Amino acid sequence: MKKNKPCPQPLKGIIPPMVTPLLDNSTLDRKGLDRLIEHVIDGGVHGLFILGTTGESTSLSYGLRRELIELTCAKTDGRVPVLVGISDSSMEESIALAITAKDAGADAVVAAPPFYFSVGQEELVDYYTELADRVQLPLILYNMPAHTKINIEPETALKLSGHPGIIGIKDSSGSGVYFNKLLNIMKNHKSFTILVGPEEMMAATVLMGGNGGVNGGANMFPKLYVDLYNAAVARDIDLVLKLQEKVMEVSEKIYNVGKSDYKYLQGLKAALAHLEICNGFMALPLSGFGQNENDIIKENLKNITD
Predict the structure, then answer these.
(1) Is the pLDDT assigned to residue 157 strictly greater than 90?
(2) Which residue, 204, 216, 261, 291, has most beta carbons within 10 Å?
(3) Does the active-site annotation cover 75?
C-alpha cells in the first residue's frame, strides 16, 4: 500500500475520468484496467479519476467499486495522484468508500450532490461540510446537474472553500457562463482547484484561469489532451487552435454516433475496445453499441489516428 501524501493544491493538468473496464456486470476486466492505466500515464496525464460518470460508478456494486479502488491505486503506485469518486445518495456509503480509498493510498475523493431528493444550497453546505469533516482525504466537489438535478452555485462553492478539507471543484455543467462566474468568485482563492469536465471547452477554461480538465477523451488519446492543456498554459494560440480542431474531431466522430442519451460513453468504450486497450462491455442499465455502430466507430477511429 502506498503511503498517503499531501494532495497538490491546486491540482493542475489533465486528469482522465477513467472508464471502468468490465467483462460483465460483476467482473472487472483486470488486464484491460492495467493496460488503460499504463496507456494514460504513458501519455503524460497529471492524475487519474475513477468512479465518476464515465466510470459508470452508479451502476457498479460496492464490492466492485472497492476492488477497482484497490487495483487502481496499487497499479498507479504513486506515479500520479488518484482521485476516487464517492458519490452516493447515502452519506454512510460515501464515507465507507472514502475509507477504502484512504487505505488503498488514494490522494483525494470526489463527490457529487446526493441524488434523488432535491436539496437547496444551504442543505448542500451542511451536507458537504459534514462529509468533509468525516472523510480523511481532501474532498473535491463535483457539479453534475444533468444527472443530479442539483447545481452547486458559485456562492456555495465559495462558502465551502473555507473548509480546510475541501480543495476544489470539478464542473461538468457545460456552461461557460457558470464557469466564468466560478472563476470570478474564486479569484482570491488560488489554491482552490477548478477543473472542467467537457473537453470541448477545456482549453478555453484554462486560458481563462482554470486549472485543467477531467476529459474523457484522454482515455483514448492522452497525449493530445496533455498537449492541448500545455499549449493553453503557454498561451500558444496557434497550437491551441490546431489541437482544438483535433479534439472537436474526436467529439464529432466518437461521441456522436448512435442515438442514445449516453452515446458519448458508448462511443468511448467502443473506441477503447477497437484500440485493444480494454473491453467495451457496459454495466446495466446501459448497453454497448451494436455491430453497425461499432463498425462506424472503427472506421472513424482509423481516420482520427491516421
Answers:
(1) yes
(2) 216
(3) no
